[in-house]
Write a structure and sequence with these properties.
Elements (H helix, E strand, L loop, with lengths): L4 H21 L18 H15 L19 H11 L6 H20 L8 E3 L5 E3 H23 L8 H21 L7 E7 L4 E7 L5 E4 L8 E6 H8 L5 H4 L4 E4 L1 H9 L6
Parallel strand pairs: 3-6
Antiparallel strand pairs: 1-2, 3-4, 4-5, 6-7
Organism: Streptomyces mesophilus
Protein name: Maleylpyruvate isomerase family mycothiol-dependent enzyme
InterPro entries: DinB/YfiT-like, Maleyloyr_isom, MDMPI_C-term_domain, MDMPI_metal-binding, SCP2_sterol-bd_dom_sf
Length: 274
């Protein structure tokens, strides 16, 4: 047996992004590894450490035994503490140590994916000791690594891959969470609709519909009388959803039609990442 067809797109997306990351960081000078990225609190080294650490966990490697410093301002939740462990343990690694560990991890993980024969519904280890399906795990990994590729591209001023296989996985993940953003967090009224018109390297039009009970669903059909229409660029859409920009910094790049108060509530509650 080999990788299940429904998992192939996630494997391809991971491969595309992780190889791009390797290419981006291979020539970096020691000082460039300390440059800040849009991921709060993390440098280039920290992002790459996270990439290495999570793929090592997916390989089944034990988590490091390590005590976090008390002064990490960006670590506020148990989930953030969990993610920070793999990062902080590598904070003093040199550039050659980072690139060699990244390359070795990519080789091991690629081999694991080539030999993967489990069904998409097979249970695997998730964050914080949780369980999730293999499909959920691989989807989340493809999404996560594409976002961190973009973090590195922003920091290193090397834009690209906004329409890569990882970008399409990220789009689907973010669209999955949109009904919760609109219905629950922003409090859109019952029997209303909100339209997202996204243009750029990845373009789409989606309508979030709120039923009489306040539940949200999403589809690709236009709405004749939406409460709000938000038109924005794909790059702004993903950066808002992933907490890479503050709403106030990009409001002038979002065209709003309809209920201004509801639109602001949606923009202010757009973040879906931990």
């Amino acid at each position: 047996m080999s990788l299940h067809p429904s998992l192939q797109s996630y494997a391809d997306a991971w491969t595309h992004s992780v190889e791009a990351i390797s290419e981006l960081v291979q020539p970096l000078a020691e000082g460039e590894w300390s440059w800040a990225t849009p991921c709060p609190g993390w440098s280039v080294r920290d992002v790459v450490s996270h990439v290495i650490g999570i793929d090592c966990e997916m390989l089944g490697d034990p988590r490091p035994i390590h005590t976090l410093p008390r002064d990490l301002y960006h670590v506020q939740t148990e989930s953030q503490r969990y993610m920070e462990m793999q990062v902080d343990v590598r904070r003093h690694h040199t550039a050659p140590e980072m690139t060699s560990e990244l390359e070795y991890t990519i080789i091991r993980r690629a081999r694991q994916l080539r030999n993967e024969s489990r069904a998409p519904g097979a249970k695997v280890r998730g964050p914080l000791g949780s369980e999730e399906t293999l499909e959920e795990s691989m989807r989340r990994r493809a999404f996560d690594i594409w976002v961190h590729e973009q973090d590195l591209r922003t920091s290193l001023r090397k834009p690209g891959n906004l329409d890569s296989p990882g970008a399409l996985v990220a789009r689907d993940v973010m669209l999955f969470w949109l009904p919760k953003v609109v219905a629950k967090r922003a409090g859109a009224p019952a029997n209303s609709a909100v339209v997202f018109d996204v243009h750029g390297p990845v373009d789409f039009l989606r309508t979030v519909r709120i039923d009489a009970d306040g539940r949200g669903t999403i589809d690709g059909a236009p709405s004749l009388g939406p409460a709000v229409t938000l038109a924005l660029d794909w790059e702004i859409f993903y950066k808002l959803a992933c907490g890479r920009v503050k709403p106030a910094a990009v409001e002038d790049r979002i065209k709003v039609e309809g209920d201004q108060v509801l639109a602001q509530a949606i923009i202010d509650n757009f973040v879906i990442t931990p």
